Amino acid sequence: MQSNRRLKNSDGVSRKTGFRRFSDGGFSTYSMLAPFVGLFLIWSAYPVFKSLQMSFQRYNAICNKDQYPCGSVGLKNYSTLIMSDARFHKALFHSALYVVGAVILSMAASLALAIALQEDNRQNRILRVIFFLPSVTSSVAITLVWGWVFGGTTIGMANAVLQRLGIISHPIEWLATPVLAIPILIFLSVWGGAGFGMILFLAGLNAIPSSYYEAAVIDGAGPRERFKYITFPLLRPVMVYVGITGTIGAFQIFETIYLIFPSSVGSIGGFKDEALMIVPYLYDAGFKHFRLGYASAVAWVLFAIIFVISLINLRLTKSLEDLR
Amino acid sequence: MSVFTQVPSEQKSVDEDLKAMDRFGGFTNPYEQKGKFRALRKLPLYFMIIIMIAPYYWMITSSFKSVKELQTNPPTFWPKKWIIGNYYDSRFNPIKFQQDVQQGLFQRFPELKYGFLRFIFNSLFVTVTTTFLTLFIGALAAYVISKHRFKGKRVIYLVIIGSMMIPWQVGIIPNFLTVKSFGWINTYWAYIIPALPKAFIVFFLAQYLSGIPDELMEAARIDGAGEYRIFWSIVLPLMKPALVAMMILTAIGEWNNFLWPLIITDTQSMYNLPRAIADISNSAQGNLGTQGVLMAAALLTSLPTILLFFFTQRHFVRGIVLSGIK
Fold first, then answer.
1. Are the C-beta atoms of A296 and B173 separated by less than 8 Å?
2. pLDDT digit string (tens) for A134-187?
3. CB contact under 8 A, A36 and B141
4. Engineering a disulfide at B273: which of A25, A32, A281, B123 sits with its beta carbon 3.0 to 4.6 angstroms away?
5. A232 and chain B: CB distance < 8 Å anywhere?
């Protein structure tokens, strides 16, 4: 014991001088940091500034000095986007609808699942795995399966099942009906995301001490009160996290739309743009029409939206917390 | 934490206690349902389970149906006869057209030497290399950031954390231009190098390391071990749980990557699996027989990550939960 303490004391001296305790910025420090920082600068930091710069430029595939000069155009990309680009407005509107629907429904489903499968037994463990499967499945693969389930006038699985059950008499053209585009995408998002949220909610639920519930029951609280006064408030941090990450993820939807809502002219988002959203529009502008400056402006609008929503979300929950 | 797996025995005894309490009017399950319609309340859950499984069921059964069966209307829900023709059909002859016979998945892409296997190789190679390299450089950086003292450390760490807030689509156009100017279009470089710096991995590993006392590293330092030696034989083994969790997350992410390969490849030989099956899907438009091949490809693409998940459930969930709650 004594010798141990002495060792610690001598260590305390070195704590002050830093001698041999840390490597103080020697060669090894920087050489260990260099690979990551170097790559980070080239592939993560530089592109952010470059795309900001590009968003103020006309930067197209075809540039000639007389007719279509490339170079700085000031705020023109942004003003066009915000004031007069009807397709972008459509994309924004669809994204907003989709995000609201997908996030709220996914969260409700995740929470319901977490509570339903909270008890730790064999059956629930298997069910949790089943609900989590979409999170580890290639979204391209599973989206193509869904495309066929919903697709085909009569041979899709969805129509076959609904017809056999007598719910519908005529097959529905799921993917070719513009009104159904966003509901279908929301459905796919809930299907794919509910299990992920469920895991986070389960972790949150497990962190709530069961003595709280026992105390509540002794005080005569029913299941509803227990949920309202214990589970819900204590799960709020998890909800904020699931909400923010869900919102950010939902705004970035691309593959599903690319795969099941293609359109004839080599663009994406469906024949009537019924499923056009922000990232598909970015892809369309940047990599189909090679308007790279314009697409960069779209990317920065996306960033701004996500940033503002994260801030509002944090503020909101903070003020709610202060109210209590 | 044990969301999927067995609870540790210690936890179990607590559960037993609570169960025993239950018998005396205690209350383990906060939402214990009582009453006549108890079974009925589970109905939505069963409904959700069916919807959850439906696409997997459809994918697996369809991939073993014959061309003729795939074209029947209404579709069959259970294959009349299980055949492997969608994967490989020995009757297929490229010169002679036969009714109800089509190119199996592994007979497609004849212009590639190994056909579909090439995409499997591409995906595997890219996923494995990217995962290991990204973890290695991430772990090095995380070690230095959490255990070394040097100038500019706070700034570097703040920039790394701040960069996690920026959606990655913001950088996609400049990165495409950089890749193009390096002449990396249709190369493995374009897959691997830009994917290496992952801020989240550094953040996660640095957080993990900060919870580990410095004494072990100090002891090694006193014994005269160099920094690289310390990193390799002390820090890496200590970080193992965190590394495993991150490895699984990264590997699954890389395997399923689609938008980036879509941008940086335009020759078939460089497609990864998701990119290749999107291609098959395009050629399957309106041809129901080809849907079977597509389902076979989808199955082969999703199977590896699902298996990886099954075998590493505990680490995987720990990774997600830690990264989420912290």
1. yes
2. 999 999 999 999 988 887 665 788 888 888 888 888 888 888 888 889 999 999
3. yes
4. B123
5. no
Nearest to A303 among B71, B167, B277 (CB): B167
Is A302 touching B (CB cutoff 8 A)?
A: yes
- What would you measure as the largest C-alpha separation in chain B, in angstroms? 78
Query: Which of A22, A145, A226 is opposite residue B55, by nearest beta carbon?
Result: A145
Token code pair at residue A243:
């909400």
Per-residue DSSP letters for A79-141? HIIIII-HHHHHHHHHHHHHHHHHHHHHHHHHHHHHHHT-S-SHHHHHHHHHHHHHHHS-HHH
Cross-chain Cβ contact A39/B160 below 8 Å: no
Of A30, A125, A237, the CB nearest to B4: A125
How far apart are alpha carbons A119 and A122 in whole angstroms? 9
Taking only residues 56 to 75 of chain A, the set having a beta carbon closer than 8 angstroms to any beta carbon of chain B reads none
Considering Cα of B76, then B78, then B80, then B85, what sign does the dihedral take?
positive
CB atoms B278 and A118 under 8 Å = no
Q: What are phi and psi of A26, to 5 degrees?
A: -80, -170
Alpha carbons B220 and B237: distance in angstroms, whole number: 14
With a CB cutoff of 8 Å and minimum separation 6, the contacts of B59 are A141, A142, A145, B295, B298, B299, B302
Scanning the structure block, which residue is given the tokens 């991939």? B63
| B-chain residue closest to A43, CA distance | B194
Q: Which range marks the domain in which residue A251 is found? A: 76-323
Instruction: Look at residue A276 and tell me if it is in a domain.
Output: yes
The amino acid that residue B269 corresponds to is S
Residue partners of B323: CB distance under 8 A and separation at least 6 = B200, B204, B245, B249
Q: Which of A81-85, A209-213, B32-36, B284-288 has the lowest mean pLDDT?
A: B32-36
Q: Residue A208: which residues within 8 A CB-CB, separation 6 or more?
A: A230, A231, A234, A235
Q: Which residue of B has its CA nearest to A150?
A: B55
**What is the three-class DSSP state of B185?**
coil
- Provide the shortest C-alpha distance from residue A182 to chain B (in Å): 19
CATH of the domain at A138: 1.10.3720.10
| B207/A215 Cα distance (integer angstroms) | 35
In a domain, A52, yes or no: no
Number of C-beta neighbours around residue A212 at 10 A: 15
For residue A84, being part of any structural domain is answered with: yes
* Top-confidence residue, B19 or A222: A222
Structural domain total, chain A: 1
CATH of B117-325, one of 3.40.30.10, 1.10.3720.10, 3.40.50.10420, 3.20.20.150: 1.10.3720.10
Whether residue A20 and residue B31 make contact (CB cut-off 8 A), yes or no, is no
Residue A15 lies in a domain: no
Instruction: Check residue A64 and report its DSSP letter.
Output: B
Q: Mean pLDDT throughout B240-248?
A: 88
Question: What are the chain B neighbours of A164 within 8 Å (beta carbons)?
Answer: 74
Token readout for B157 is 């760490």
Q: Once rounded to an integer, what is the mean pLDDT over residues B107-113?
A: 84
Nearest CA in chain B to A163: B74
DSSP state of B174: H
Nearest-CA residue of chain B relative to A247? B167
Peptide bond before residue B74 is cis, with ω within 30 degrees of 0: yes
